[in-house]
């Protein structure tokens, strides 16, 4: 089963990757940049698997690059703050 099939699984997966990146010394801006790249890839190449992913894709598609970067940063913050 893919982590993209369930929104909670996706959030858990992203949280683990953020934690891993931080433990390897990656700074917050680099993590946000990688999150933006992943978000762009998902929006362009992956069909949403659930309602939450569809909303995120629709928002991503409506946003300009700066807004997309903000969304990516918010996703990182969401999963990072959820671990506190």
TrEMBL record:
InterPro entries: DUF3243, Uncharacterised_YmfJ, YmfJ/YflH_sf. Pfam families: DUF3243 (PF11588). It comes from the Bacteria. Gene3D superfamilies: Protein of unknown function DUF3243 (1.10.760.20). This is DUF3243 domain-containing protein. It comes from Paludifilum halophilum.
């Amino acid at each position: 089963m893919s982590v993209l099939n369930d929104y909670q699984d996706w959030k858990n997966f992203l949280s683990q990757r953020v934690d891993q990146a931080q433990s390897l010394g990656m700074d917050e801006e680099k993590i946000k940049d990688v999150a933006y790249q992943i978000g762009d890839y998902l929006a362009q190449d992956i069909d949403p698997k659930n309602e939450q992913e569809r909303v995120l894709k629709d928002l991503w598609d409506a946003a300009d690059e700066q807004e997309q970067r903000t969304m990516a940063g918010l996703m990182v913050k969401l999963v990072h703050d959820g671990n506190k």
